[in-house]
Amino acid sequence: MRLFRAKDPRTLRLYARAKRDVETAMRLIERRASKTNSWLSATLEEQLDYFRREFWPTMSKGLPLEFAQSECMVKSSFQGWLGIDPTKEEQREALREAHRIYLSLQ
Predict the structure, then answer these.
(1) What span, in angstroms and rounded, lies between the C-alpha atoms of 100 and 88?
(2) What's residue 89's pLDDT?
(3) Rounded to whole angstroms, how far apart are CA atoms 47 and 50?
(4) Domain coordinates of the chain in residue numbers?
(5) Signed CA dihedral, 67, 68, 69, 73: sign only
(6) What is d(CA 88, CA 1) in angstroms, rounded to the nearest whole number?
(7) pTM exceeding the 0.70 threshold for the entire prediction
(8) How many CB atoms lie under 10 A from the CB of residue 72?
């Protein structure tokens, strides 16, 4: 079962949009961090909450609701910047939802 199809135009558009959104988020975060030291002194949960409130609504547009509400998707999207990983249970739940959504499209 492959949900990502490398030559599928829809998949490529979704990937390009997600990449642009992440790049925009990083520019804004770097700008904010350079103006104040609050980002460096914020806890990991505060940083994740900031990403969740400020950037996730834009980044998750077009995703199925189950994915947009998934903690695994949020953590995976910001993993590189925050150094966090979804838990095994969050990963299993995301895979169950992906499988359920995939089967409903058949």
Answers:
(1) 18
(2) 92
(3) 5
(4) 9-105
(5) positive
(6) 20
(7) no
(8) 21
Low-confidence stretches of the chain (pLDDT < 50) are 1
Judge contact between 53 and 78, C-beta under 8 A. no
Residues 6 or more apart whose CB falls under 8 angstroms from that of 40 comprise: 33
Find, among 77, 18, 81, the residue nearest to 47 by Cα: 81
Contact (Cβ atoms closer than 8 angstroms) between residue 78 and residue 42: no
* Residue 49, amino acid: D
At residue 4, the 3 state secondary structure works out as coil
Q: Compute the distance between CA of residue 89 and CA of residue 95 in angstroms, rounded to an integer.
A: 10
Q: Which residues contact 48 (CB under 8 A, 6 or more apart)?
A: 74, 75, 78, 82, 84
At 45, which amino acid appears? E
Report how far residue 32's alpha carbon sits from residue 76's, in angstroms, rounded to the nearest whole number.
22
